[in-house]
């Protein structure tokens, strides 16, 4: 493999990484709105039933995409845990239990 080939691969990876960051930023903007809504309406920060549905959905999508479903579940679980932490913090800020 030539250095130029490796460079092109790495440039592609860098573009994909940038897209992932922007997608995550957009996702977190939306989940922040959900968190505010939950805090205002006294809904719990976590929704375990939805989380399980989303994990099952993502595992199916991963399998279709030839991506390890275990990896996709770990990735989504990390994101979900971070969102729940933000939602709980919002509720703490509003004084709602």
UniProtKB/TrEMBL annotation:
Domain Chorismate mutase, first and last residues per copy: 1-91
Coiled-coil ranges (or none): none
Domain of life of the source: Bacteria
PROSITE patterns per record: CHORISMATE_MUT_2
Single biological process term from Gene Ontology: chorismate metabolic process
Enzyme class at the top of the EC tree: isomerase
Molecular-function GO terms, alphabetical: chorismate mutase activity
Keywords: Isomerase
EC number: 5.4.99.5
Pfam family, one: CM_2
Name of the protein this chain belongs to: chorismate mutase
């Amino acid at each position: 493999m030539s250095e130029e080939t490796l460079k092109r691969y790495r440039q592609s990876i860098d573009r994909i990484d940038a897209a992932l960051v922007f997608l995550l930023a957009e996702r977190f903007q939306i989940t922040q709105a959900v968190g505010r809504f939950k805090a205002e309406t006294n809904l719990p920060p976590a929704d375990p039933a939805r989380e399980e549905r989303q994990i099952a959905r993502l595992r199916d999508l991963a399998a279709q995409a030839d991506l390890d479903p275990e990896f996709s579940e770990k990735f989504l679980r990390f994101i979900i845990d971070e969102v729940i932490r933000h939602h709980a913090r919002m509720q703490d800020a509003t004084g709602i239990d």
